Amino acid sequence: MFDLSPLWAHLTSWVSDHAVVPLLQALHLSGLSGNPDDIAAALLIAALQVGIIGLVFRPLETWFPAERWADRRLTRVDRNYTLLMLLGIFPLFTYLVLMPFSHLFGGGGDTVDPGTGSPLGLTHWMPWFNQHPYLLFAAYYVVYDFVYYWMHRTQHAIPWWWALHSMHHSQRQMSCWTNDRGSLVDGFIQSVILATVGLVIGVDPDEFAWLMLIGELMQNLSHTNVRLGFGRVFDRVFVAPKFHRLHHMLVDPSRPTLHNCNYGQVLSIWDVLFGTALYGEPPRATGVGDPIVDADNNYGLIGLHWVALKRFWGAVRRPAGWKPGEVAFGADYVPIPVSQVDLHALGHASPAAEMPTAALAGNPATGETVPG
């Protein structure tokens, strides 16, 4: 485990003593399993993340936009949800669920207590890592990112999971705030899967928090509305905004499977290795063609979650909701295979046709401007 600097340790302790503990006592939650310092650290990490999003990524959208908007009305719900998630829901979830879950199953990893660490932990098989904590952290991240890649592909492949995950893709104005837009049920499933993997490979809770921060910051950047790539070489290793934007593009009826690409979280190398990488396409409008899912843009925070849950219930209780494949949603949220849907009809319903005042910024290579 990394040694925290005295300043960080002092700051965590101060926030815990003066803010977290009084709040937990007021809510009658102080008796539950978990260390208040964990929630204080999560809050500090979240504040750091919000600061980077607001002070770095948001200005980039003004200076180098991939898509120009007449206003940013649709981004407001994502911004508000990001603040709620990072400064409220996730720290509480960490304290009330993830940390007790870690302690229940002997979390802490081999580097903390070799006697209780996971027998599948990386340091159990390669003790050499104990003397090289930064390389160990990098190895943890590679495993974490690999699991995320396959989990993300599954979110798109299983209809009931897509019913939840589609809330993330429904945003017409994808921005630096869009990463945290997602169903709480979907977020719970993801967190449990990733936390379980972390426990199995021996990740310490403190390290897991930093793994999450790096992953979340890179995803905030990859969702940012900018024309930014990392160059021919690094684009094949790391997920750039240009790369991830193609993952969020509207369905193209002339190439109906084109958007099934670029699933990586931080490392694009998984897409390259498993044949899902797409490069060389100009910037495209984002969102979904399915009118049922696109209607998410009409709702606020509560409405978004309610309609996502209705899609989920419509899918999970039917056999079609468990059959892998890309779907749209019909009456009563019945999953319908896309092969049975008129994609041109979906294309006509796309938000791009309804936003004549928005325009995709010019392709840096050609200077071409494409209507949004």
Tell me about this structure:
- The chain is globular.
- It starts with 5 loop residues before the first helix and ends with a strand.
- The chain has one domain (6-371).
- The protein is built from 15 helices and 5 strands.
- It has helices spanning 6-26, 36-63, 76-104, 109-112, 122-125, 133-157, 159-169, 184-201, 205-222, 231-234, 241-247, 269-273, 291-294, 301-316, 343-348; strands at residues 67-68, 327-329, 335-337, 359-360, 370-371.
- 54% of the residues lie in helices and 3% in strands.
- Helix 1 (6-26) crosses helix 2 and helix 7 (159-169) packs antiparallel against helix 14.
- The chain is mostly helical.
Quick overview of this protein structure:
This protein is mainly α and 372 residues long. The chain has one domain (6-371).
Key phrases:
372 residues; mainly alpha; 3-stranded antiparallel sheet; 15 helices; 5 strands; 3% strand; globular
Topology record:
Layout: H1 6-26, H2 36-63, E1 67-68, H3 76-104, H4 109-112, H5 122-125, H6 133-157, H7 159-169, H8 184-201, H9 205-222, H10 231-234, H11 241-247, H12 269-273, H13 291-294, H14 301-316, E2 327-329, E3 335-337, H15 343-348, E4 359-360, E5 370-371
Antiparallel strand pairs: 1-4, 2-3, 4-5
Helix pairs in contact: 1-2, 2-3, 2-9, 6-7, 6-8, 7-14
The rounded Rg comes to: 21 Å
Gap between N and C termini: 48 Å
State the shape.
globular
Question: Spans of 5+ residues with little confidence (pLDDT < 50)?
Answer: 108-116, 348-359, 362-372
- Order of the strands making up the biggest sheet: 1-4-5
Q: H/E series, N to C?
A: HHEHHHHHHHHHHHHEEHEE
Structural class: mainly alpha
| Count of helix runs | 15
Instruction: Give the number of DSSP strands.
Output: 5
Mean pLDDT: 83
Largest sheet: 3 strands, antiparallel
